[in-house]
Design a protein that fits this description.
With about 425 residues, the protein is of the alpha+beta class. The protein folds into 2 domains: about 5-100, OB fold (Dihydrolipoamide Acetyltransferase, E2P); about 120-425, Bira Bifunctional Protein, Domain 2 (BirA Bifunctional Protein, domain 2). It is about 30% helix and about 25% strand. Strand 2 (about 30-40) and strand 3 form a beta hairpin. Helix 5 packs antiparallel against helix 7 (about 235-265). The longest helix has about 30 residues, at about 235-265. It is elongated, with a radius of gyration of 27 Å. The structure holds 4-amino-1,4-dioxobutan-2-aminium adenosine-5'-monophosphate and magnesium ion. Magnesium ion binds near residues 354 and 361.
């Protein structure tokens, strides 16, 4: 007999069906045993009458355990006393395809680390499954927009000759007779190469690595980066204008399919943003913060804004413009990588931006320096010119003005669902203290 998803089987009252799934709970009451069985589509109660010999202990049957992967054939009947839609399944046969050891290692009381140790068991929770349903829909919507607009997808190498963002945060490994290789911190260099190759509009969704000993709720050492690069722009404003339309499109798609489930499971509304997003220069942001008497943490880099300041600004933007999003623009050159374009009239500032959502950075972007001589000088000043010569070569034989951004996929999902921690938005988290499972 063909297996039916549980949700489908529940529409077949009176029929004999076959379902497969995990046992969630086992409960005995006199001569009856009740199993709640769940698959990806839903859950159903299975009501099994315990045979007389088994009840009397004359035959020894293995007891069902929460976690058992079971294959059940039986009849769906209406029973108004049952909480799960007033339906239950009366089994003809229950085969245990994959037995679980008795006593699951996690329960409702487990802490975050235990849940991460037994991630696959935690992921059986429908709420956790929804995180990945939403993430799948997010990626799908992003791709729809790219395909409509003639973008090419890249798969750039993750083994690199040099660091692409900052030298301090790279993982290195031995690489045959070439010495060291570095794990890519971003596809930055290669998406720019695609622009020099005349691709004009490119994107990549892929893993990136950061050797950062950060222990925050927003940082991982490996994460999925969503990267976009556009040619023939006039300024970083063109990149922001493109990005906000793309985000609004993605949220529209998500809103129509998931707003109800997300409201129910995460108590959060999916708001389709209105355009344009407010823009604040870094200078204006500092003025707002000083007007609101916000004191920056002492260890903040000069000119930067600490996480508390970003939340204060988010509040200001929500109160003033009614927006969950805003762009912070024109970062000081000292805070940005060498490849960001500087303003000709104010070289201490970059033509760059971060996109903030609900107080958290989800994107960094910029117009890139595409003029070979200027870029070479900026690399030199950053102490990089020799190790990045292969990258500088991309700009030797004609490269159009261009810009783009990188967005952390898990940060996006985390903000969308208002999850407390990036670990909850990541299939398997990697951090300084975690390399397993
Ligand atoms: O801000 P980042 O470091 O910028 C870049 O990688 C540039 N190449 C982007 C560009 O095109 N100019 O990283 C981009 C985004 C961040 O805004 C954040 O959402 C996410 O990636 N991100 C992280 N996510 C999880 N863990 C970390 N350690 C992250 N670091 C950055
Ligand atoms: Mg950034």
């Amino acid at each position: 007999m063909q297996r039916l998803p549980i949700a489908t089987a529940k529409r077949s009252v009176g029929d004999t069906v076959r379902i497969c799934g995990f046992i969630e709970t086992v409960r005995k009451h006199k001569r009856m045993e009740f199993l709640v069985v769940a698959d990806r589509s839903g859950r159903i109660q299975v009501a099994r009458e315990i045979p007389a010999e088994e009840a009397a202990g004359e035959v020894h049957a293995r007891a069902f355990a929460p976690g058992d992967a079971v294959d059940i054939t039986g009849r769906v009947i209406a029973n108004f006393t049952v909480a799960l839609d007033g339906l239950e399944l009366v089994p003809d046969s229950i085969a245990v395809a994959g037995p679980a050891q008795h006593g699951l290692p996690i329960n409702e009381m487990s802490g975050r680390e235990a849940l991460l140790d037994w991630r696959y068991l935690a992921l059986r929770e429908p709420r956790n499954r929804l995180v990945f349903e939403v993430a799948t829909a997010v990626e799908h919507a992003m791709r729809l927009h790219w395909h409509e607009q003639d973008f090419l997808e890249l798969h750039s190498p993750k083994l690199m000759h040099s660091a692409s963002e900052s030298g301090a945060e790279t993982f290195s490994l031995e690489y045959f007779h070439l010495g060291h290789a570095y794990l890519a911190q971003s596809p930055q260099f290669y998406k720019q190469m695609a622009i020099a190759a005349g691709f004009e509009r490119v994107f990549e969704i892929g893993p990136v690595f950061r050797a950062e000993a950060s222990f925050t709720s927003r940082h991982a050492t490996e994460f999925t980066s969503v990267d976009v690069e556009l040619a023939w722009i006039e300024s970083h404003e063109d990149v922001m204008a493109w990005e906000e339309r793309w985000i609004a499109f993605v949220l529209q798609q998500l809103h129509s399919r998931y707003s109800e489930a997300v409201q129910r499971e995460f108590n959060t509304a999916i708001r389709v943003p209105s355009l344009p997003f407010p823009r604040l220069t870094m200078e204006e942001a500092h003025q707002v913060l000083s007007l609101r008497k916000y004191a920056m943490a002492a260890n903040t880099r000069r000119g930067d804004i600490d996480p508390g300041g970003l939340h204060e600004l988010a509040q200001y933007v929500e109160e003033t413009f009614g927006s969950e999003f805003y762009f912070l623009t024109d970062y000081p050159s000292s805070l940005r990588p060498f490849y960001h374009m500087r303003y000709t009239e104010a070289p201490h500032l970059t033509r760059s931006f971060d996109l903030m959502w609900k107080g958290i950075e989800i994107t960094t972007g910029a117009q890139r320096e595409h003029r070979y001589a200027v870029l070479q000088e900026q690399a030199q000043k950053a102490g990089l010119s020799h190790s990045v010569q292969y990258y500088l070569d991309f700009f030797k034989y004609g490269c159009p003005p261009h810009g783009g951004f990188g967005l952390g996929l898990a940060r996006f999902v985390m903000c969308l669902l208002q999850l407390e921690n990036i670990r909850d938005a990541t299939f398997l988290f990697r951090g300084p203290r975690r390399l397993t499972p």
